[in-house]
Amino acid sequence: MKIVLYCRDGDRPGWLAALSRHLPDAEVWAWTPETAARQADYAMVWAPPPAFFESQQTLKAVFNLGAGVDKILKTPDLAGLLKGAPLVRVQDGGMAVQMAEYACHALIRHTRGFDVYDRQQRDKLWKQHPPIVRQEWPVGVMGLGDIGSRVASAIAGFDFPAFGWSRSAHSIAGVTTFHGEAQFEFFLRECRVLVCVLPLNAGTAGIINRRTLEFLKPGAFVINMARGAHIVDADLLAAMESGHVVGAALDVFHDEPLPASHPYWAHPRVSMTPHIAAITLYEESTVQIAKKIARIEQGQPVEGVVHLARGY
Ligand code: GLV
């Protein structure tokens, strides 16, 4: 079996090592314009150029090396270039637990005032603050797929009132769920903390904007672990300026790396990280891909196939 790999340079050794462990008999190579003529059975890719697909004529499946498929879906005429090969994303692959950690960390750091205690330590100030009332901190998670449902369950596990919203109906123990456009405003009105783990597509770009932020309860807090383009930055900055939103934990940005001139860097209400909420794990993802390849070879269906028109 032949596998062609296209990924960031820094990730290549990790993927190649994991592939040699979990698919030791496969012939694996990294795609470059020089190796383009070599034809593979399967592709493992992160943000490949159109020339990658143009060069590959015999692919049985393309595995996206991450949960988000927004980058690859921007390829012009992707459906035509795939020639019927399914595009398959990593499902969880060890990322959901990391996302749950990130969301709970940001939520608890803010609600328990750990930032305040950090400042007090710097000032050598011994001062205890009253306990929080969890009912005052209802949390809503937008996006309830493999990742979002784990995030929502983890939040419910800390006894915060937990709400969830997604395009289609989901049922998660301990989480009150809403779905579809018609229920979006009802969902937002329940929440003070808004967590975004949505896929990015035409229907979700800019979903965190002036209107949606206004629906949140006063003293709102925003956690974005999905894509920067889910937020209209000017609207979030204005909502923080007005005090309606008291803070944001942001892992993703319109432009990455975030330009040094961007106001988020020095904003007193923003805590930010460089797109690390969940890091794709070579081992877990490769084991998952190897199992899916085995199923495809046996003519069995696989999960995680991306619906190109729907955008996830
Ligand atoms: C990371 O952002 C991913 O899509 O896996």
General description of the model:
- Helix content is about 35%, strand content about 15%.
- The chain has about 300 residues and is an alpha/beta fold.
- The protein has 2 domains: about 1-95 and about 280-295, Rossmann fold, CATH 3.40.50; about 95-270, Rossmann fold (3-Layer(aba) Sandwich).
- Strands 8-7-6-9-10-11-12 form a 7-stranded parallel β-sheet, with helices on both faces. Strands 2-1-3-4-5 form a 5-stranded parallel β-sheet, with helices on one face.
- Helix 1 crosses helix 11 and helix 5 runs parallel beside helix 7 (about 145-155).
- The longest helix has 17 residues, at about 95-110.
- The radius of gyration is 21 Å and the shape is elongated.
- About 40% of the residues are buried.
- The model has no long low-confidence stretch (mean pLDDT about 95).
- Bound molecules: glyoxylic acid.
- Glyoxylic acid (GLV) binds near residues 66 and 67.
List its traits.
312 residues; alpha/beta; Rossmann fold; 2 domains; 7-stranded parallel beta sheet; 5-stranded parallel beta sheet; 17% strand; elongated; binds glyoxylic acid
Give a concise summary.
The chain is built from 11 helices and 12 strands. The protein has helices spanning 12-22, 50-55, 70-73, 78-82, 95-111, 114-122, 146-157, 184-190, 210-215, 233-242, 282-297; strands spanning 2-6, 27-30, 42-45, 61-64, 87-89, 139-142, 162-166, 175-179, 193-196, 220-224, 245-250, 270-272.
